[in-house]
Specification:
The complex is a heterodimer. In chain A, the strands form 2 sheets. Chain A has a two-stranded antiparallel ribbon with strand order 1-2. By secondary structure, chain A is an all-alpha fold. Chain A has 14 helices and 4 strands. The longest helix of chain A has about 30 residues. Chain A starts with 7 loop residues before the first helix and ends with a strand. Chain B is α/β, with parallel strands linked by helices. Chain B is built from 19 helices and 11 strands. In chain B, helix 11 crosses helix 12 and helix 18 packs antiparallel against helix 19. The chains are: A mainly alpha, B alpha/beta. The interface between A and B is large, with 41 and 44 residues.
């Protein structure tokens, strides 16, 4: 028989540790129970469907009949589907037009709304209102404004001497630009983030720069931009992700036309899934989009290291 | 309440949530919580529902309606039915009145679950619901969805029920029953049929010193060439003063088909398994339309939100449309109607229509009662909507009777009748949505990008055939 000799201090510490472990475990259980509603929602309505769509991506599934495993058939279809290329190119062009436009407009508006004026709260509310306007209603208004023959925009252009004003939504060469212009209408959220960031810029930095003889542009370039650079990165990232998911404007205003010039990736994904009932193929398209956006966001973060400035990091880089 | 209690309650709530989520979906949903959206094409649809008077109702319809009011002897107890409808077609108030009328006319039937879905989302939500095990008893059927709903086993064929009900099949305009049929079987009762015709601004035609198109039609001189000459002559001005001879052309093969047929082409093979619209004749039909845009007689882009304002602002003279939009024209417009011109290959006018119906769910537990509701829609419902100005009559008896009293002063019964009798149906295969997108792209590529029609249509037909084969 082996006798285990245990030091008295260790013997005394063991129950205490057990009690501590039990207490920690109990607290963890309590924590999980408190977040259980969210966890259940996340697994049931987000993670679960995402995983299911990953499996569905390799099946033929028309919603009504059971999915049928088809291996890499959907991948081969995707590689030969010229409309996927069209949709991707359209989306990239839209992204290139709308992201800089939205970020620049939101920053400009935020700077204006950061001025200390009487009734500035009213202006802030007014400029944010489009963001809470129902998207479909907004699109109809823009359809009327940009109508080739009866729209206010072309009336203005004609009055300004343009004899042949363009068909904003009906000209295949212009429609992406028009949709990018309409997307600027929804820059309110980015504007709020910039406004918050601008209000966090220490006044002492501006005073120091002024003492060093910096003019307004130099103060903006060398003080404002570096300090709000995390907000700029955030807004660029979110705007890029949103631009890859552009749907409502094209769905309501053009249905992807004319001549597929506004057939964006998510619109095509929707058509394949919910009009043609090719849910398996549509799931694959969704995963390709997800991975593409993930990669693009990763690249953005990689390059951001060169110009982003975090206060706590003690300087750029 | 201490922390222990809170934790217990939280756990209980979480378990309850999981259990309720795992249950079979409850079938009942109140009508007013149904999703709404889109446009309401029938402004008259906001009017109160009035029951057609017995004196005005034709004998056959009255018989059908009153027959449907009596529960068959085999039916016992109350039937609680689920109905799915197009929420965008009428206001919730109109639907509630109609549903109230159904329950009043059909004792023993309660529409306990009323699910309104805007048309744009209809098939998606319906298929998802059916896939999830919740099958409606009575459901809205659009002609573009008949094939998809029938081939997926959602709808029950109604031919036997129709026959045994004693409804006079010959009294229905043949096209209206065909629109809600697939592969020779009837899948719905037509309640909102609409033949399409040309609506035109009579003041602008008169101002251009042109003969009245309706008179030309009566004289047999309203031809496809004449129509082109008219829209050319009526296209005037530039910039804000520009007036187009034609409003925007509709963006669907369901409308282009008339001109393809009219120039001697075909859209699909008789069994709908092959696309045939790249023949020289079909291309002539498409070219007739695309040239209107190329020559500047019609603006590009189509939706009723665009074409109706074009008419109302006097910027377009002719619009190919249906009566359901009558209430949306500006009151100061002097409108008139004329059928589609005499087309070269047919030597006569033909047109197309849009006929909505109500069908019976294939998995309905009370198909006998569900049929009564569908039958109500195809008889009394059609008459109620006709009196509201929201539908044309489905039967010849209704057309020759009460319909003529609800026509607006500028409408012509003869024009409507010509359209109703020359309505040609394009059976729409299950892959139609995909084919329609291909056709619209082709149309735009020719009209806007100047591409070669023969090459474009050949390519489009090849892609359409691939879609047909895959479906």
């Amino acid at each position: 028989m082996r006798v285990q000799i245990v030091a008295p201090t260790a013997r005394a510490a063991a129950p205490a540790q057990t009690r501590k472990r039990r207490g920690t475990w109990k607290r963890q259980v309590e924590g999980y129970l408190f977040i259980a509603p969210w966890l259940i929602g996340f697994f049931a309505f987000t993670a679960g469907p995402m995983l299911a769509s990953l499996v569905l991506a390799f099946t033929h599934y028309d919603v009504f009949t059971a999915p049928r495993w088809t291996g890499l058939t959907n991948v081969r279809t995707l590689l030969s589907d010229h409309l996927v290329r069209t949709a991707l190119v359209n989306t990239l062009i839209f992204s290139a037009l709308s992201v800089p436009g939205q970020v620049i407009l939101a920053l400009s508006l935020a700077m204006l709304l950061n001025l200390k004026l009487r009734g500035i709260g009213i202006y802030r509310t007014i400029f944010y209102l489009p963001t809470v306007t129902p998207a479909v209603a907004g699109v109809f208004i823009w359809l009327w404004l940009f109508d080739k023959d009866t729209g206010l925009v072309n009336y203005g252009l004609y009055a300004a001497g343009v004899n042949q004003p363009p068909g904003w939504f009906t000209d295949p060469r212009l429609v992406k630009l028009t949709i990018a212009l309409v997307s600027l209408w929804y820059a309110g959220n980015q504007m709020i983030i910039f406004l918050a960031a601008l209000q966090g810029v220490p006044q002492t930095l501006y005073e120091a720069a002024a003492l060093d003889g910096a003019n307004k542009w130099q103060r903006f370039r060398n003080v404002t931009v570096p300090v709000i650079s995390p907000a700029i990165l955030y807004n660029i990232t979110i705007a890029t992700i949103n631009s890859f998911q552009v749907f409502t404007i094209a769905f309501v205003a053009t249905a992807g036309g004319p001549a597929n010039a506004s057939l964006f990736y998510v619109l095509y994904l929707y058509y394949k899934g919910f009009q043609d009932f090719q849910m398996g193929y549509s799931s694959l398209l969704a995963w390709v989009l997800c991975l593409s956006v993930l990669a693009l966001t990763g690249i953005q973060f990689l390059f951001a290291r060169r110009w982003i400035h975090y206060e706590n990091a003690g300087g750029a880089g | 309440m201490n922390r222990r209690h809170v934790l217990k309650l939280s756990a209980l709530a979480a378990v309850s949530a999981v259990l309720s989520a795992c249950q079979t979906a409850a079938p009942t949903r109140p009508a007013n919580t149904a999703p709404t959206g889109g446009t309401t094409p029938t402004a008259g649809a906001t009017a109160a529902v009035s029951t057609p008077s017995a004196t005005h109702a034709p004998a056959s319809t009255t018989a059908a309606a009153s027959g449907s009011a009596q529960a068959p002897a085999t039916v016992q107890g109350q039937a609680n039915l689920e109905i799915w409808y197009d929420a965008a077609a009428f206001t919730p108030e109109v639907y509630n009145q109609i549903f109230g009328q159904i329950e009043s006319d059909l004792p023993g039937i309660k529409l306990t679950s009323r699910v309104g879905v805007p048309f744009a989302d209809y098939l998606t939500k319906l298929l998802t619901s059916v896939a999830g095990g919740a099958t409606p008893d009575v459901l809205f059927v659009h002609p573009a969805l008949v094939a998809a709903m029938a081939t997926k086993g959602i709808l029950m064929p109604l031919d036997d029920l129709f026959k045994s009900s004693g409804l006079p099949r010959d009294d229905y305009f043949p096209a209206y029953l065909s629109y809600v049929s697939w592969a020779g079987k009837l899948y719905a009762m037509p309640y909102q049929p609409e033949p399409t015709m040309y609506f035109y601004n009579a003041d602008l035609v008169q101002a251009a010193k042109l003969d009245d198109p309706r008179k030309l039609f009566s004289d047999g001189k309203w031809t496809a060439d004449t129509y082109l000459q008219y829209i050319k002559a009526l296209t005037t001005g530039s910039g804000p003063d520009k007036v187009y001879g034609s409003a925007s052309l509709s963006g669907t093969l369901r409308v282009y088909d008339v001109w393809v047929w009219g120039f001697g082409g075909e859209i699909f093979s008789p069994d709908s398994t092959q696309a045939l619209f790249d023949s020289p004749e079909a291309i002539k039909g498409f070219t007739y339309l695309t040239d209107q845009i190329k020559n500047g007689y019609a603006p590009t882009g189509y939706s009723t939100t665009v074409s109706l304002p074009q008419m109302n602002s006097g910027k377009a003279v002719f619009l190919y449309n249906v009566r359901a939009f009558n209430a949306q024209y500006a009151k100061n417009l002097k409108l008139s109607t004329v059928p589609v011109p005499i087309l070269p290959a047919t030597g006569k006018t033909i047109t197309r229509g849009a006929t909505n119906g109500f069908g019976v769910g294939a998995k309905s537990k009370r198909p006998d009662m569900a049929w009564k509701v569908a039958q109500w829609w195809g008889t009394k419902g059609n008459e109620i909507l006709m009196n509201m100005g929201s539908a044309s009559p489905a039967t010849k008896t209704l057309a020759n009777g009460p319909f003529q009293k609800v026509l607006l002063p500028w409408e012509s019964f003869e024009v409507w009748q010509t359209a109703a009798e020359t309505d040609r149906v394009l059976p729409l295969p299950p892959a139609f949505a995909q084919i329609d997108r291909l056709v619209n792209t082709a149309f735009d590529n020719i009209a806007l990008n100047g591409k070669d029609p023969a090459a474009v249509w050949k390519d489009t037909v090849a892609q359409s055939n691939a879609a047909l084969k895959a479906s």
